[in-house]
Amino acid sequence: MTVQIKNILIWQKSGVLRNLELKRNSVNVITGGSGKGKSSILHIIDYCLLSSTANGISKANIDDKSSWYGLRLYTSKGLVTIARTAYHVGEMDTVYFSDNGEIPDFPIQNLKVASLKKVLDKEFGLDSDLRIPYGGKTIAAGSRVSFRHFLSFCYQDQNAIVAPDYLYNKPSDLKVTERIERTFRMALGIVDVKGAIVSERLAKLRLEHLSMKRRSEVIGKKRLEFEEDVFLLEEEAISLGLLEKTNNDILLTLEALGRIANSPIDQFDNIGEKVKALESREFEITRKLRRFKNFNEGYKKYQSVLKESDDSIRPVSYLVDKYREILPGTKTSEVLQALENELALAKESWKKRYDSLLYVDISDQTKTLKAELNDLSIKLRELRGLSARLSSPKEIYRYQGKLEVKVELYSDKATPLDYTDKLSEIDAKIAQLDGVVQDIESKREFAIGRLNDKVNEHLSRLKLKGYEASQAVFLESEKAINLILDNGLSVEKMIDIGSASNYLYIHLSYFMALHEVAREKKVSWMPHFLVFDQVSTPYTLEIPDDISSLDLALQELNIFVESMKEKGGIQVILMEHISESHWKNLKLDNFKLVDKELIDEYGLIN
Fold this sequence. Notes:
Number of helices: 13
Oligomer: single chain
CATH architecture of the domain at 1-124 and 527-606: 3-Layer(aba) Sandwich
CATH topology of the domain at 1-124 and 527-606: Rossmann fold
Number of strands: 14
Shape: rod-shaped
Radius of gyration: 53 Å
Largest sheet: 6 strands, antiparallel
Order of helices and strands: EEEHEEEEHEHHHHHHHHEEEHEHEHE
CATH class of the domain at 1-124 and 527-606: Alpha Beta
Structural class: alpha/beta
């Protein structure tokens, strides 16, 4: 058996303990005249069940005259007692708690509110793994589900019970509406602990997938902007004379810009001096090459002379061979022989002219100098061009300052992040969990179908005036009930149905049906009580038709409590104006008067 209420307790400042004793599996009626404090009962119950506020408790007539409020609860382990100081005392983070149901003469604080919440969570059958699958503005996704999340399915105050455009209490309280939205399927048994965990995990994965996809799109957009920035920096470098031409490779462009950013400013400040130094060297090499050229030309002329001497040697050879015949008996042969030797040496020298060490050295130096001269020409051409287009050192320095920061920033972005693999991995996990969620959707269809069946079963006895042949349909997304008319040909929205009596019937039917389906699904964390504040609100009790309409509502509550006994029971707490004789005349056996009627001088606070 889950939680029901045995006693509602008020320790009055006068020293009197107000003890309202309730019965299980009954319609407990707290009835009496106006201004007796009946409507505060619902809010005292909620306050003792650890509401953060005491809104709805009359401050002048109830709170200022009270010291403590308390509840004595039936739980699976027996009776427990909870008491909280009256709201005017101030916000307290401690309460009185008795795990054996003791009602003290005067409570003392002995337990932290946070600790009591954990105790009550267990009593309501809540597992610590049960989490909120979807977050909101006031509730974080993945936060623990509390027993308080299900109390909204148990309360109907005087305003809500006849509301035309909402079903639950406190429609303007975003925290309350988000709790209802996030736990509705848990309340109906559509989602159990496993389903909640899977739903939470799937919700996180889908958010992660959406976030990663958006990041990927943003990165793609940012990369285009980044590349455009890099190329603008490159164009600026060209306009300043620091680069000659664009490069289509962004990595190479960044590398070139990085060199410029890290180059000392004097590299761009002494180009004229560098040109002069290179020109001086160019002049020196040119002068050397000119001297080498003159040497080679003289050497060639010398070799030409030697070559001509080769032709001169032939007559001398002839004379040597024939001198005896021409000049016999003289020393001419010795003279000629000496001449022949000299000319032979000259001839030999000419033949070996290219083997000269001097000639070889001059040739090698000439080649080296020409190569250096060629390099100098290229460097001079670059520097002269750079000098012509290079901006002032001040402009270059300013550009370098901007460039250094951006190159460092952009270097990390040159290789874009790729989320393809991660997205595929998340998709695989989502597909794996989708099967469980599809089962949840099947359960949802069934549970909502049962909810509609139960609502219409109650409305078959609580006839809606003007819509007797209609069928009610609950809309989960709007948390509203519309009517299907003319065999489905038209729809009447809840807000357009009209008549406070009709709205009363709709609210009663919905909340009774909600608990019936939860009980069929054996939802352990749904409390086994309902609190209704004044079902007689739409009626004037002197008008016979109004009395008949109210009687139908009371009879339906009696039928509901009776039918729930075989399903574990339900406790209804009803604040009313009707007298005990009224329901006794109707023979409503499940109706029980709490204490006695609050009339004349007898009220909730005495």
